[in-house]
Amino acid sequence: MNTKQMEYILELAQVLNFNRAAENLFISQPTLTYQIKLVEKEIGFDIFERSGKGAALTPAGSQFVSTLRSIYAQLAVAIEQGQNFSAKYKESISITLPIRSAIYFLPQVIAQFSRSFSEVSIVANFDWKDGQNAFLRGEHDVTFAMEYTMKRVPDVICHHLFDSKIYLITEKNDPLTKKSLVLPSDLKGRTLMVGGGSPPVLRVLQQRMIQEIHVDYFNSQDHDTTLTNVAAHRGVCLAPGFLNDHNGEFAWLEFDSEVIIPCGVYTHKNDQRESLHAFIKLLQHFYLDQPNFKV
């Protein structure tokens, strides 16, 4: 099955009429019918039921088209990226990170890097759930990670970026925003959101607040849900500073805790490209040059 046949199937699945689909595709109706039959013969089942009223998806066809639509969209993106790359670049560096704020200075680094390495494309991928695993599968050249998650991983090199501190996230009008440092005792009578993929050291701190300060608490499944709950006046949250997008929507207050979470970027040990080395060094320098930046 080729990309044209994919396009024919998806168009017919949309309009469920051979004549109209053929018109939209600027081909003849017999050509469309022939190509659909070729694909059905290739895959071994009927995608469409034909009738005098037009076409309808079979149950198998419905499932097939649902998956095909996703594949076709990904393929279109891959083709577009390939065309852009071949026209301008000779090399690429793919970096995966869970959230844009994890490497806050990435846009500035890319801009400065491109001035010295104009033929190298930096491709950023944002994947909270599987980005790190994709890096380990060799699908990316660089990954951001909390360093504890990569301690026992072989054949990778750690490039430390910063030590992330713990902050209390509140609404901007919260009375605690008047304090330069929030103490654990300040959480008394508050509702604390916990869980949501928190690293182990943060989970320990959350449990301490629950047991020693006797705060109310409830589980929040992820960071975005937590921020939504903060905005909805449902509670406050302790979070590592690298999650702060610095857009000013919430208050990120310094919290009296010795907990730090070392964070860095990782590369494959066998990848010794000069461009990759320069990119990593530039990332590190940006954080070294901003010692007061809150992470």
TrEMBL record:
Gene3D superfamilies: 3.40.190.290, Winged helix-like DNA-binding domain superfamily/Winged helix DNA-binding domain. The keyword Transcription regulation applies. Keywords: DNA-binding, Transcription, Transcription regulation. InterPro entries: LysR_HTH_N, LysR_subst-bd, WH-like_DNA-bd_sf, WH_DNA-bd_sf. Residues 1-58 form the HTH lysR-type domain. GO terms for molecular function: DNA binding; DNA-binding transcription factor activity. Signal peptide: none annotated. PANTHER family: HTH-TYPE TRANSCRIPTIONAL REGULATOR CYNR, TRANSCRIPTIONAL DUAL REGULATOR HCAR-RELATED. GO terms for cellular component: protein-DNA complex. This is DNA-binding transcriptional regulator, LysR family. It comes from the Bacteria.
